[in-house]
Fold:
Amino acid sequence: HSKNTGRNASNLFRDGLNALIEKRRALQADLEKALEQDELELYYQPRTNAQTLDIRSYEALLRWNHPERGIVSPVEFIPVAEACGLIIDIDTWVFREACKAATNQLKGAHISVNLSPLQFQQKDFVEKFETILRETGADPSQLELELTEGMLVEDDIRGLSIMKMLKTLGLSLALDDFGTGYSSLSYLSKYPFDTIKIDRSFVAALGHEDNAVAILKAIIGLGAGLGMKIVAEGVETVEEAVFLRLNGCDQLQGYLIGKPLPIDLVICDAPQDKVAAILALEAQKFTD
Ligand code: C2E
Ligand code: MG
Ligand code: MG
Ligand code: MG
Structure:
C-alpha cells in the first residue's frame, strides 16, 4: 500500500516537473520572438533627490508586453532569458533604448540600467556598449550600470578591469541590492562603485525589526565615508522617507514617489501631495 502511494507521489512530481519544463520552453520560444516583434518595453521609475525631492534620475526596468498574457514581469522572464543566453541581446537592446531616451525624452536626466552577470562576462561587451554610446550620441555621464555582488568573485581581476574600462567610457557604476550578498564590505573597498543601492528588504524592515535603524544608519555612514552616493530602494511610506532624509540618504526610490511607468507617462516632478506629507511629518518630529 505504502509503495503504491510512493509511486503516485513520484508520478505527481514528475508530471509537475514536466509541466514546468514545458512552460519554460514555451516562454523561451515566445521570448525569442519578443525582441524581433517589438514586444519589449522599458518602464522608468524615478529616483528622487532625498533632500530637494527633485527628480532628475530614473531606473530603466524591462517589461514584456506578451500578446496573450499581457505584461509579464522581469522576475519571471529574466531567469529564462539568462538560462538560454538571450539576456545578452536583451540587455544590449535595453542599453540602446536607454541611450536613445537619454538624448530624447529624458535629455539631461540620469538613467540607470540593470546588467545581467552573463553580459558582464562577454568578451566584447565593453566595446559593444562603447559603439552604442557613439551611435546614439548619448552622454555617458547620464548613464549608470547597476551590477550585483553575484557578478564578481573574490579578487576578480578581470571584473575589476572591466569596471575600470566602463568608467573610462564615462559611465557610472552602482551596486544593486546591497546587503543581500555575501561579501558586501570587501566589494566596496575593492571595486570602483559610484553608487550603493540599499536593498528594499532593509527599508521594509524599518518599524518592524529592531536592528533596521542601526543597519540603515551604518550603510549610509559607510557610503558617505567612501564617497559613494546612497540610494534607498523600495521606499513605500512617508515614515521611511523621513527617516532616510534625516539620516543623510542621497536618493529615494520606491512606490511612494512613483511606480515604474512607460516613458511618456513618467512624471518629471515629485508628486506634490507626497512631498507635502513628507515635510509635514518631518516638521512634526522636530516639534514633538
Ligand atoms: P531591481 O534592479 O532591484 O529593481 C527594483 C525592483 O523593485 C523593480 O522590480 C521595481 O519595480 C521594484 N520596486 C520599486 N519600488 C518598489 C517599492 O516601493 N516596493 C516594492 N515592493 N517594489 C518596488 P521589477 O521591475 O519587477 O524588476 C525586478 C528585477 O528584474 C530588477 O530588480 C532587476 O534585477 C531585474 N531587471 C529589470 N529590468 C532588467 C533589465 O533590463 N535587465 C536585467 N538584466 N535585469 C532587469
Ligand atoms: Mg536595479
Ligand atoms: Mg535592487
Ligand atoms: Mg536586482
